[in-house]
Amino acid sequence: MFTSAILLAAGESRRMGRMKLLQPLGAKTILEQALDNLLCSLVDEVIVVVGYQAEEVIGRIAQRSAKIAFNPRYRQGIGTSIVAGLPLVERQAQAIMITLADKPLIESCIIDELIENFVQHDKGIVIPVFGGRRGHPVIFSIKYLEELMTLKGDVGAREIVNRHPGDVLEVPVESEGVILDINTLKDLQRLRERLTKGGLCQ
Asked: Which residue, among 93, 79, 80, has the nearest Cα to 3 in the 3D structure?
């Protein structure tokens, strides 16, 4: 099954006060780690959507095999970034994975587990769950392409999930990385401490 991943990396990181995706995380930045986890997985292509500080972001990942989409409307919210990435999805794609660049602890094995569950079941939306909370990444069947293209503002794809509850498969996972948020410098420090536990794609 051909899976296209859209990695959202266009935000302004307002709560942190600096561009969080370019902050060091071990030998890599947060962005590089999140991207490498995808590139080490069963995903067939990765589309990185940039916006804020686009030149710096692109410079960090230019040597990696990912497509780049620029979202000129990134200040209008996450929905606009999803829409900006969709035109680059390959025609043979059967599934579109939406994921966030500020979640670098989503290991490749978790991504693979979600893809495998998508293949094995007849549900059109697959979502990881940790501790009873839904997280990222979320996989959508290509049948939802047109609905994804209509997204606006800062709601993201959540509204599509809510619109089709009967087509959702929740996959319990043992990795907190699917729900871990990095919004402040304290969040970033805690994340760096987690590196000592290993488990990240190198």
From this structure: 93
Q: What is the pLDDT of residue 197?
A: 61
User: Tell me, what DSSP letter sits at residue 141?
Assistant: E
Q: Which domain holds residue 171?
A: 3-194
Contact at 8 Å (CB) between 178 and 135?
Answer: yes
Residue 14 inside a domain? The answer is yes
CATH of the domain at 136: 3.90.550.10
CA atoms within 13 A on the CB side of 160: 24
DSSP state of 57: H
Contact by Cβ (8 Å): 100, 21: no
Q: How far apart are CA 141 and CA 13, in angstroms?
A: 30
Q: Within the chain, which residues score under 50 in pLDDT?
A: 199-202
Location of structure tokens 């710096």: 56
Q: What's the one-letter identity of residue 5?
A: A
Amino acid, res. 67: K
Q: What is the pLDDT of residue 68?
A: 98
Per-residue pLDDT at 189:
84
Q: Structural domain tally of the chain?
A: 1
The answer to the question of residue 202 being in a domain is: no
Cα separation of 192 and 122, whole Å?
Answer: 38
